[in-house]
């Protein structure tokens, strides 16, 4: 497997830039004072479909050949990738078949349907998802676009960090949440090429800490029965991204749900923007380890803003 080069990532950005938002980088004097450092938030909560996933899906669809385009795309997802792939397919004028567990949130199903995706429901187990997806692919000839363990998806996610470096900020550290690892892997690649001295720190919930355990053991350890408020990080780390992480990520920090909620609330109160719990994990990790980051310039990727406002974890 050949990893994307910096030129590949730049070409991906040119390929998808008309289909995505160039999201802003914001800061908060109040949060900087609390943290004792300068933080620059890359606001992917303002991205198309409300999350960074729009980047990878757009890139993967854009790189399909003509025959594959005719047959459409398929995936299994109950989260942001489902909507991102449905939207990318709609933009490309091709079908999208989305396998979703029967207990997926209605707000996620509505998003997929709104972008023209065809939902095929299955039992809420990984085995059922994969079996149903295989059936869909066999029936339709659609191309499976994995949510994160796909090199074209990783290449697309890498464009987020590329935009951060275009801000001409000399980051000491860049932080990103880690679930399947597509965002982290892409961020690590871009940063390694542009500024090898900059540290890459991942953040992960304690209740879904397979990336942390895999990083420590230097072998991929799948997550079993994850439990965390950060629902976007419940998935196990992908093989492609694990290899990138071993090469280019400096550390993975973990936080509990109470710490995640505290960081989430801080962003709502001080920055007046909507983020989902997964998005708050890096700030939670920074606040938990403040002494480690004192007087640095820190880039934090706010990964998405798709949260059910009726179920906010604070009042």
UniProtKB/TrEMBL annotation:
It comes from Indibacter alkaliphilus (strain CCUG 57479 / KCTC 22604 / LW1). Residues 18-304 form the Tryptophan synthase beta chain-like PALP domain. This is Threonine dehydratase, catabolic. Belongs to the serine/threonine dehydratase family. InterPro entries: Ser/Thr_deHydtase_PyrdxlP-BS (IPR000634), TrpB-like_PALP (IPR001926), TrpB-like_PALP_sf (IPR036052). One of its GO terms (molecular function) is L-serine ammonia-lyase activity. The keyword 4Fe-4S does not apply. CDD domains: Thr-dehyd.
């Amino acid at each position: 497997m050949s990893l994307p080069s910096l030129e590949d990532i730049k070409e991906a950005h040119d390929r998808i830039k008309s289909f995505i938002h160039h999201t802003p980088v914001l800061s908060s004097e109040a949060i900087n004072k609390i943290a004792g450092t300068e933080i620059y938030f890359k606001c992917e909560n303002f991205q198309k479909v409300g999350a960074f996933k729009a980047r990878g899906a757009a890139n993967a669809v854009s790189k399909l050949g003509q025959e594959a385009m005719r047959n459409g795309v398929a995936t299994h997802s109950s989260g942001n990738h489902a909507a991102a792939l449905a939207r990318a397919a709609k933009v490309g004028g091709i079908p999208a078949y989305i396998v979703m567990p029967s207990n997926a949130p209605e707000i996620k199903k509505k998003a997929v349907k709104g972008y023209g995706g065809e939902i095929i429901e299955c039992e809420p187990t990984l085995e059922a998802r994969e079996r149903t997806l295989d059936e869909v692919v066999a029936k339709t000839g659609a191309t499976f676009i994995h949510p994160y363990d796909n090199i074209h998806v990783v290449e697309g996610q890498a464009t987020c960090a590329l935009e951060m470096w275009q801000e001409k900020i000399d980051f000491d550290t860049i932080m990103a949440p880690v679930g399947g690892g597509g965002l982290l892997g892409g961020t690590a690649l871009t940063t390694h090429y542009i500024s090898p001295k900059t540290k890459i720190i991942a953040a992960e919930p304690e209740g879904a800490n397979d990336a942390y355990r895999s990083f420590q053991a230097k072998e991929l350890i799948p997550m079993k029965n994850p439990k965390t408020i950060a629902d976007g990080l419940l998935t196990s780390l992908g093989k492609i991204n694990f290899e990138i992480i071993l090469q280019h990520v400096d550390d993975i920090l973990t936080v509990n749900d109470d710490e995640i909620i505290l960081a989430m609330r801080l962003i709502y109160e001080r920055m007046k923007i909507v983020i989902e719990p997964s998005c708050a994990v890096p700030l939670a990790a920074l606040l938990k380890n403040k002494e480690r980051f004192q007087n640095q310039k820190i880039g934090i990727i706010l990964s998405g803003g798709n949260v059910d406002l009726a179920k906010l974890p604070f009042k």
